[in-house]
Amino acid sequence: MKRIDVTCAIIVENGKILACQRGAESDHPHEWEFPGGKVEPGEEVAACIVREIKEELLIDVVVVKILAPLEYDYPMKKIKLIPCICTIINGQPKATEHEAVKWLPLEQFLSLKWSNADCEVFLTHKAELECLS
């Protein structure tokens, strides 16, 4: 099984991060995630996350920092998840592809049922994220 490069945006605002809930028909029904998507062939990571966030949430973001990626193997796919810390430069997030979006203080992160890979991103980069809030 080929590994897929996937970006995710950790969007930070006023000490909170944006959480998005996946739909019932997704690979991870009703689980929460950092929004993002697959890197297209020849596409830069920053360009991918800007494009994906515009498509999914109808907002414009700027990438502040690209964090160290992590690899995660799901039964149905293998991914290399590339987290990007982002800031909104235009718009308010709207759930167009997700069931819900919500701003969440870092200390409440584990109160939601996150997808495994996104939870690993949070736990791996928790110290860096705490510095942002």
* Share of helix, binned: 10-25%
The number of E-state strands comes to 8
The N- to C-terminal Cα distance equals: 38 Å
Structural class determined from secondary elements: alpha+beta
List keywords for this structure.
133 residues; alpha+beta; eight-stranded mixed beta sheet; 8 strands; 23% helix; 39% strand
Provide a brief overview of the structure.
The chain is 23% helix and 39% strand. It is of the alpha+beta class.
Write a structural description.
With 133 residues, this protein is of the alpha+beta class. The chain has two helices and eight strands, in the order ββββαββββα. Strands 1, 2, 3, 4, 5, 6, 7 and 8 form an eight-stranded mixed beta sheet that branches. β1 (3-13) and β2 form a beta hairpin. It is globular, with a radius of gyration of 14 Å.
Please specify the SSE layout and strand pairing.
Layout: E1 3-13, E2 16-21, E3 32-33, E4 36-38, H1 45-57, E5 60-66, E6 70-73, E7 78-90, E8 100-105, H2 116-132
Parallel strand pairs: 1-7
Antiparallel strand pairs: 1-2, 1-4, 2-3, 2-8, 5-7, 6-7
